[in-house]
User: Which sequence fits this backbone?
């Protein structure tokens, strides 16, 4: 079939010409196309040759002198010298070489992407060096301009002036660039530089202010604290700061902790949480009286102090709302679980009333142990299993397990405490305004789980991380304790989970990775209950919460190691599937021959299905991040069978993935499926919205911003993202002021909803586009943010710096 | 610090003019690439975990999550472009141009002009070239410009603003925005000539951008001489034909995809010309792609040209040949002999037996005179004495005018089978 001579023919590189659509203007796009598209005849004869693609600059520039009207003339005349690209530098002797002018201009005016400016800078420079000779070469094209510019000569002086001006502008601009991002005026620049200096001075210097304040009585006032940086917990020398004081004392298993706490007896000892959260274990100790439980806590009390979330009962969740906590008031009515068993506080009885179901401690204890078993189930690796069995059968004393088989975590970095919002206020709005900023810090809440939850729910995640640090320090896993033998409890692992989850939420991935590291793959023997037969008698399974495993698996993808994430997620998935198979085969979760009641089995199957689903979601998200769209879509699609109630959202999501790739037709197919599903179900309002949203996205992808805007602003589309999207569409329609007005009023009307990173980013971007006074407007936003948002607010979206 | 300064993203407040003169108007330019969808980062916990419902509640309250499926990463919130990004040949450059009156006086006769200077030409992109009579304080003139980029290399957007102040001064300033247009695709082609007049074109298209590309259309527009059949789908049953590239028609960065086309000369050309000789224009490739949220790009290659294979003076092609024949059973083939030279030939056909294939008939047959571009079909009979895939060789044509002999070996292959051993018999 293939004749011999063609076999030698190599692939031929082609030149590509832009599609020469007919332009209304008299310019010559078609000529360009022609030039680049007509290879020389030699090229035809030797088709192996690559044709140079840069067949540009063969056409002499068009001079646009055709315009009429005095003003137009003026514009155009001055434009003449701006045939910048093809001008050869030597054409104007004593003047600034136009190229260099351009180059200068380019530094600040090039529209090249700015984010990765640092990296790109080099590229740009390379391009420049390449570009200069190129610009120099087409002398031919310049000549007509020059020769015909006899008339220009007389103008030259004027032009020179103009050029001087531009030069100055450019240099001024350069200066401005170094000084401040958006100078309003030269004066403004200076000011800003000063400000910058000032803030540089005021940058939080690592000072252990906690200790310098040591003489003052401890208050819970949430304000007036300098950003503090606790260097390391070993500094703790005689202050009221209980957590720090406790630090050296508590490097022991937690059940014995209370000994230290009881004689301590101060306001909020870090002890609160420890004895509190181990709900289930103390329940078990109720049913196992010979277990050496340090203190006999009655169930009701235990529930009380433990915070509602430990018991997944409906009434309990009611109590779990933060309002319940807040109503307690941090000062007086602090639950003091460690204190005597007879606690007559009125608040307690009222709280007790909430847990109506707790009259029968034994029954609830039993059911709880079932729940424990269900939630804690996990399949350890073979090696770990062997160690656990030998510990259980008392062949090996846990003390003698090899060190490298143990998890020995410890804090890896100093406190994060800090508030970027306040820093910005100091810098831009002054001390006065900054003083008004009041956020909760780790010091201003109770040093226990309640305080921690309060910090989380008020979005003070940095402070919350600090608090977890203190609490972990109290548990002997503080700064520098990594690599030292320790013992784990349900609580300590929950604290680690919260800490690491918050670090991830704060985008502090490296820190999270560092602190995750001692845990290995979360399969070391000492993170299983079986490892502590005396502390947790008869309790089996993993101390590591499932959510922490998910977090651990997801983390590498944020650090550019998505493959590692996928590996971890796959092994989690197989464990989930194995457990589900075990359950379906009539075994217990871990494959043991234990009889489960039908009810418990069903509950367990449901739990593990939802966990499997969670893992699948993570896998799909990870694949999406890797841009492996085929597998991502497949995975999202497979979730539908487990979570049929999320069908609409998942199909819409898949459709959006296709839109992102640019495949609008396939996206529409999925959106049609969404519509069908909605029709079958009978339309609920939420589903109507997704149909509308999908429609709007399709219009958007067809460049039909007007229709997209109509869909987004449909009143049925009450979700916040729709309003934001409608405003975005307005900008593309050239209606900047309207768009701004809409977003501004949204932020004013419902700040809780619209003080969101992406909305604010859009708003500040438009401010920058609108006027030179964007700085003031951004600062106004900063003030709005300051009175609502916690210390975890991502200030980057305000684009103030 | 520098990086932070520059994170001000795509719109550029080049207050170029403030060194010498306070301008009353400010010009801002922002490239309008498509917005992006916000992705959130799900961090979840279970009710029994320490935070209880807290993480879940935080996620539900977050406006960027999908309600009811908060763990789905890809949200619905649109975010404006964060940086200039890349622009590629064939894409459309869109930009927002805003002129804002920063002063507290009314400004008159404002003329905003946006030109795009490329290495070869200058284009006016402004929607209107008429001046705006007056602009009140805090008001702005907005324009969204679009331009389909048709050249590679440096482009400079030149924005010029002229206006008259209240005191009657005529002022003028300009700003330059420079950007590079890059090449999005690498296209390589290769022709394969079939034994018949068909030509196969293989086109390798490589995505040399940094983002995935959905190839909406890659088609060959044939020149007037050819009909084209696209061979990039697998016909499966009804009208729905499946692409050879699978379900997803997108191309990851640096991925290459091969498209195959079969070109057949239209009968009128094939007959008239007899043989297509020398350089012929085959046609051009038309490529349409889309990226994020329908950002569109389109390119055409230049005319693809192909050197027709040289057939020498006499071309021998096969009109008919069976693919499978029985061992030691005669079979027929039909050869077509075409005179590709400029002179009349007087041809003599000889057949030399090879080890496996034997010709049945008289060797040294006179075929008569054949004028230029003339052709004749000759039926021939053969038999094979060896099983397997056998090559047909040993045809010799001699032009008695010039005493020149043309040899034709390996002109085709047949599969020879033994009928007696097959399970059917």
Assistant:
């Amino acid at each position: 079939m293939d004749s011999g001579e063609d076999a030698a023919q190599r692939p031929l590189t082609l030149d590509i010409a832009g599609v020469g659509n007919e332009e209304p203007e008299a310019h010559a796009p078609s000529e360009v196309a022609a030039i680049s598209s007509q290879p020389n005849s030699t090229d035809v004869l030797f088709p192996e040759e690559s044709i140079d693609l840069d067949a540009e600059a063969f056409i002499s520039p068009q001079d646009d002198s055709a315009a009429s009207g005095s003003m137009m003339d003026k514009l155009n005349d001055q434009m003449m010298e701006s045939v910048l690209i093809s001008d050869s530098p030597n054409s104007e002797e004593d003047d600034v070489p136009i190229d260099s002018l351009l180059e200068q201009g380019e530094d600040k005016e090039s529209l090249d992407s700015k984010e990765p400016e640092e990296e790109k800078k080099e590229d740009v420079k390379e391009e420049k060096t390449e570009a200069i000779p190129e610009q120099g070469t087409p002398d031919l094209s310049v000549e007509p301009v020059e020769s015909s510019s006899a008339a220009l000569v007389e103008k030259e002086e004027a032009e020179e002036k103009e050029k001087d001006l531009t030069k100055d502008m450019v240099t001024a601009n350069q200066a401005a660039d170094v000084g401040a991002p958006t100078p309003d005026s030269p004066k403004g620049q200076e000011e800003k530089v000063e400000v910058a200096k000032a803030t540089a001075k005021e940058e939080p210097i690592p000072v252990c202010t906690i200790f310098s304040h040591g003489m003052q009585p401890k208050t819970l006032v949430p304000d007036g604290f300098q950003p503090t940086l606790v260097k390391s917990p070993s500094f703790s020398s005689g202050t009221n700061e209980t957590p720090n004081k406790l630090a050296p004392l508590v490097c022991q298993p937690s059940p014995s902790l209370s000994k230290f706490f009881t004689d301590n007896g101060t306001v909020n000892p870090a002890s609160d949480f420890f004895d509190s959260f181990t709900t289930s274990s103390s329940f078990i100790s109720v049913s196992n009286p010979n277990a050496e439980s340090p203190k006999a806590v009655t169930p009701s009390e235990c529930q009380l102090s433990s915070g509602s979330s430990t018991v997944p009962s409906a009434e309990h969740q009611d109590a779990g709302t933060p309002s319940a906590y807040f109503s307690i008031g941090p000062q007086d009515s602090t639950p003091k679980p460690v204190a005597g068993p007879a606690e007559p506080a009125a608040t307690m009885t009222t709280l007790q009333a909430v847990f109506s179901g707790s009259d029968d401690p034994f029954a609830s204890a039993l059911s709880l142990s079932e729940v424990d078993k269900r939630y804690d189930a996990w399949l350890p690796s073979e090696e770990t299993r062997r160690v656990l069995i030998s510990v259980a059968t008392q062949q090996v004393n846990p003390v003698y397990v090899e060190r490298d088989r143990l998890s020995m975590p410890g804090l890896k970095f100093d406190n994060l405490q800090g508030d970027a919002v306040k820093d910005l206020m100091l810098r831009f709005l002054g001390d006065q305004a900054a003083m008004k900023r009041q956020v909760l810090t780790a010091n201003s809440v109770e040093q226990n789980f309640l305080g921690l939850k309060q910090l989380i729910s008020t979005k003070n995640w940095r402070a919350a991380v600090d608090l977890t640090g203190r609490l972990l320090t109290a548990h002997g896993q503080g700064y520098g304790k990594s690599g030292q033998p320790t013992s784990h409890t349900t609580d300590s692992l929950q604290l680690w989970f919260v800490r690491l989850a918050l670090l991830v939420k704060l985008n502090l991935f490296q820190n999270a990775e560092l602190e995750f590291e001692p845990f290995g793959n979360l399969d070391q023997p000492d993170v299983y209950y079986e490892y502590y037969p005396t502390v947790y008698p008869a309790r089996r399974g993993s101390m590591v919460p499932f959510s922490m495993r998910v977090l651990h698996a997801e983390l590498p993808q944020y650090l550019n190691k998505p493959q590692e994430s996928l590996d971890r997620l796959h092994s989690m998935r197989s464990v989930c599937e194995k457990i589900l198979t075990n359950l379906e085969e009539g075994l217990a979760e871990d494959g043991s021959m234990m009889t489960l009641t039908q009810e418990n089995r069903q509950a367990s199957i449901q739990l593990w299905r939802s966990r499997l689903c969670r893992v699948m979601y993570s896998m799909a998200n990870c694949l999406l991040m890797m841009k492996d769209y085929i597998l991502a879509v497949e995975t999202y699609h497979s979730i539908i069978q487990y979570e049929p109630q999320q069908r609409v959202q998942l199909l819409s999501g898949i459709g959006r993935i296709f839109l992102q790739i640019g495949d609008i037709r396939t996206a529409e197919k999925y959106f049609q499926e969404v519509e069908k599903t909605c029709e079958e179900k009978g339309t609920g309002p939420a589903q109507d919205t997704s149909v509308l949203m999908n429609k709007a996205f399709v219009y958007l992808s067809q460049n039909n911003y007007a229709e997209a805007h109509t869909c987004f602003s449909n009143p049925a589309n009450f979700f916040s993202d729709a309003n934001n999207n409608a405003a975005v569409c307005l900008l593309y329609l050239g209606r900047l002021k309207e768009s701004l007005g809409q977003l501004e009023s949204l932020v004013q009307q419902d700040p809780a909803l619209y003080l969101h990173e992406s909305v604010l980013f859009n708003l500040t971007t438009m401010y920058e586009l609108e006027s030179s006074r964007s700085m003031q407007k951004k600062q106004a936003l900063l003030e709005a943010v300051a009175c609502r948002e916690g210390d975890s607010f991502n200030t980057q979206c305000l684009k103030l710096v | 610090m520098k990086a932070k300064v520059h994170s001000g993203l795509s719109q550029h407040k080049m207050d170029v003019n403030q060194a010498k003169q306070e301008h009353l108007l400010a010009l801002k330019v922002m490239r309008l690439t498509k917005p992006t969808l916000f992705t959130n980062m799900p961090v979840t916990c279970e009710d029994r975990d320490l935070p209880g419902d807290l993480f879940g509640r935080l996620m539900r309250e977050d406006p960027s999550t999908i309600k009811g499926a908060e763990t789905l990463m890809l949200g619905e919130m649109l975010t404006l472009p964060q940086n200039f990004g890349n622009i590629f040949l064939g894409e459309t450059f869109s930009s927002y141009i805003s002129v804002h009156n920063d002063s507290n006086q009314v400004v008159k006769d404002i003329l905003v002009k946006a030109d795009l200077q490329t290495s070869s030409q200058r284009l006016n992109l402004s929607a209107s070239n008429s001046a705006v009579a007056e602009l009140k304080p805090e008001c702005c003139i907005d324009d969204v410009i679009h331009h389909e980029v048709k050249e590679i290399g440096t482009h400079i957007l030149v924005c010029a603003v002229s206006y008259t102040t209240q005191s009657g001064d005529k002022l003028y300033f300009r700003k330059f925005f420079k950007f590079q247009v890059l090449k999005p695709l690498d296209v390589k082609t290769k022709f394969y000539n079939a034994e018949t007049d068909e030509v196969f074109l293989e086109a390798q298209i490589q995505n040399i951008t940094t983002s995935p590309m959905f190839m909406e259309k890659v088609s060959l527009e044939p020149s007037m001489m050819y009909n084209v059949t696209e061979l990039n789908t697998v016909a499966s049953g009804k009208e729905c034909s499946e692409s050879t590239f699978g379900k997803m028609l997108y191309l990851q960065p640096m991925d290459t995809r091969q498209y195959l086309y079969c070109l057949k000369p239209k009968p009128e050309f094939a007959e008239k010309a007899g043989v297509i000789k020398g350089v012929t224009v085959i046609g051009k490739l038309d490529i349409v792609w889309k990226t994020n949220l329908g950002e569109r790009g389109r390119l055409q290659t230049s005319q693809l040209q192909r050197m027709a294979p040289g057939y020498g003076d006499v071309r021998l092609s096969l009109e008919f040949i069976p693919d499978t024949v029985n061992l030691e059973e005669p079979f027929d083939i039909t050869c077509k002999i075409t005179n590709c030279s400029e002179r009349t030939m007087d041809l003599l056909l000889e057949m030399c037996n090879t080890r496996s294939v034997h010709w049945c008939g008289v060797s040294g047959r006179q075929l008569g005179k054949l004028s230029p571009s003339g052709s004749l079909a000759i039926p021939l009979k053969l038999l094979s004495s060896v099983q397997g895939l056998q090559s047909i060789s040993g045809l010799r044509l001699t032009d008695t005018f010039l005493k020149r002999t043309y040899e034709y070996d390996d002109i085709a292959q047949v599969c020879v089978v033994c009928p007696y051993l097959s399970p059917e018999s």
Observations:
- Residues 168 and 174 of chain A are 10 Å apart (CA to CA).
